[in-house]
Every structure is written in structure tokens, then in C-alpha cells.
Amino acid sequence: VQLQASGGGLVQPGGSLKLSCATSRATLNRFAIKWFRQAPGKEREGVSCIRSTGSLTDYADSVKGRFTLSRSNMKNTVYLQMNNLKPEDTAVYYCAAGPSYCPEGAETYYYWGQGTQVTVSS
Question: How far apart are CA 77 and CA 70, in angstroms?
Fold first, then answer.
């Protein structure tokens, strides 16, 4: 299973970024895909998850109303659209594949992408 995360970068507060997690059709059909993030000195935090069925789970309270998760079955890619970014969104963002029902803990996910850095700063 391969997961390729991309789309990070430097953006000003209030700006937007769209992260991508490219994988295979087999992975999307079998596993849930969840975005996590980890800021320096902090624990890894779950952001949002999409089940193998394509249904979404809720978002972390810290991103609710600003981030949107979606999936393209044509492109075998899961997207995280991030709007109205704040300095506290600065972190390395990871996508991970795990049990199809989107469990909470990072330790339950089997496969991880390499991470993409998001920096929100003026």
C-alpha cells in the first residue's frame, strides 16, 4: 500500500491550501483514509477520515467549518481542502490507511504517507 501526500506549503493566515493523498483503487476500496497532523512538540491529531464506503466522519473541532475532506474515485485520491488557515494549523500533515470504519487512534492505522508540511505565517 502506497500513500503519496502532497500540496503543503507556506500560506498567510486566512489563506487556503488543498492537500492530496494519492493511492490506489484497491486501497480506497479496502481501507479508510484519515488525515492526521502533528505540530512540533505536540501529539499527532486526527483531522478527518473517509471510510472505504466513501462516507465521511466528523472533523476535529479545531478545523470544523474550515476544512473539507473529499475523495475522487477517478483519480484514486483523497483531498483535504483547508480554508481560512490559522497559524495554529501549522503542522506536518499525514494521510494514513487503516480499518474501514475510521477508528480514532493513530496507532490503529497500518500505512502512512510521508507527510507534507503546512506553514501558516505572515
Answer: 9
Whether residue 58 has pLDDT greater than 90: no
37: pLDDT strictly greater than 90? yes
Q: What stretch of H or E contains 96?
A: strand 91-98
Q: What are the Cα distances from residue 11, in Å, to 2, 22, 77, 103, 117?
A: 27, 22, 23, 30, 11
The sheet carrying 77-82 orders its strands as 4-6, 17-22, 77-82, 67-72
Query: Pairing between strand 116-120 and 111-112?
Result: unpaired
φ, ψ of residue 88 to 5 degrees: the values are: -75, -5
Taking a C-beta distance cutoff of 8 angstroms, is the pair 70, 13 a contact?
Answer: no
pLDDT given for residue 56 in this prediction: 86
